[in-house]
Amino acid sequence: MILTTARVSGHPGVFIAPPPIPTMLRPERLDIVGFVGVAPRGPVDEPVRIGRWSDYESLFGGFEPAPGGPVRLLPYAVATFFRQGGQVAYVVRVAPHGEDAGGSAAATAHFQFDLPTGNFAGLSAADEGTWGGELRLRLLYRVAQHVRGVVESEGALQLPPGTAAPVGSLLRLIRPGSSDVALRWVASLGDRLPRGSTRTVRLDGDPLAAGSIDVDVVTGSLQIDDLARPGASEVLTGLGLRPTHPRWIQAVLSGRSSTSPTPGSPTDRHLVAPIGDWTHLDFTPAPSLMPLVGKRTQDGADRSHLIDAGAFFDPEQVATSWIDEDAGPDDRDPHVGVDRMGRVREIGLLCVPDITWNRYVPTPLPPVRHPRVPLGCRCHACTTADDPEPEFLAAPDKPRDLDARNPVDLADLISRQVRIIDVARARERFVALLDVPNGLSTTQIAQWRSHFDSSYAAAYHPWLALAGGPGGRALPIPPSAFAAGIIAARELERGLPWGPANELARDAVRAEAAVTDAAHDALHELGVNVYRAERDGFRLTAARTLSTDPDYRQLSVRRLMTMLRLTVQRQGADLAFEPNTAELRDRLTRMLTTLLRGLARQGAFAGRSDAESFFLHCGDDVNPPASQALGRLIAEIGVAPAVPLEYILVRIARDPDGSLTVVRDER
User: Fold this and answer.
1) How far apart, in whole angstroms, are the C-alpha atoms of residue 49 and residue 571?
2) What residues does the Tail sheath protein subtilisin-like domain cover (predicted)?
């Protein structure tokens, strides 16, 4: 809302201006991708908007594998998306749910400061995971200001101009020429005086003797070092040491971080959070202002081995009671994983790279010697001595995710992918990008494909490998990650109507399955989008959905129709408050016509003129008086989407005289 001042009857007044009426409609962007997967750190089931890889790495961690378990594919998918040219993504980290999964509190590292007053202040890492055990906390007492004050006869303390000592401030008082030190708290302030004047404060405790006195204003400085990320730290300065202070340490930790690369977003969290109620605490230091060192009272834990399908989807009783996408904070349903990401209004694509993740029992292989640890002497004297054992690192365990070659695992995976499509179909705002399970033959892929029929889903094959995986080996990652970046980059560069195909998958070094011409033909007819090996790499050869409806076979058509509906719904919502008159219908007609003509110029429609490309009815023929009396305004829009060119047929005919005629037919 806008506050505007005006003069009424000779005196100024304030009124709330109505929301501005839109004069034109701008196409809603659908290039933002939602990623749901497994990460070693970061908020759980909370969508976080990121604009570059470094944002992801600072909040969710890097490429470290799960302890004794499968490779986390989420970081590789997000990095690949940005490498293909994507610009904005949302990320949701999943965690196990249910009674047998324990709780996030038990998996979060805890700390405490033992206070000189005999109490302690508890803190926890911002989120669960072993990373919290690598935090180091110190609370330093700093002298923010050193001034000379005067104690008046009434016991009040007069401070010079510019002294910042609000209520709740801690003052260290020293008489000139004396070594005695007193710590006192500011209990109240005197009347506000003009700028540049002295300020009088009253202290707690017994009155002080009149006379001059040296005053140190003491504040806290909380330093948090994250040893898991060398060089990463957070320092909070100017902290109040009592609850009455405006920068009380608990209040600051409960707020947002000002050092975040993206202020105002969920990434601006502090590394730690207070536990419990601190209102009965104060951080009174020793007169020497010795710092406090945080003591870790509970290690963090990685619960990746407990993640299963229940971590990715709402419980059934919650999923069947969805509220519309505009539900606010009063919606208390515990949405998780894919269902939580589905409530993000901005995403136009959805990827779940870790959808094959399954529960496992972490059983590390026999340890191997760390390469940097030298071999010790093996003589009898040394082997019998009580020398410390050399340092060992456990070898990484084999993945235990779902194996599509196992019929039971394949059925489980299909049910998860069907559930993803259900979320996309219910929201009608984004397309779910599915990965054809790795290791299937063409016949098996056809059987897998038969379980899906939706224009809100697209499938990609085969899996593509990236260099630099665990152990220096090439790592297969879901092909949807490449597709997400390709689709986003094509929309940003050329507009949404252009089909995202014939694009190179950057950084792909190997395909996990060889696709022959015959297999490619069969998969294309099934609506599976295939990457083919070319001289310069692997290229995405198609952009189809998994719909059997010919009108929505092309991905660009599905996204175009979604964009039109969202644009009208969201940007035309304010028109509901306008009088339903002919003028309003004319204005809406002009707005829609401008939008459709702009799309036509981008090549979105098949016609050669406006009349062939689209029609728009918003007059009295579709808005009769009876309908207007019910408060309705109806606009009928019809478009002829342009279908991407997929085939170039060359016909060769032999004439009776023996000559050859070549005719090219594009369609």
Assistant:
1) 22
2) 427-545
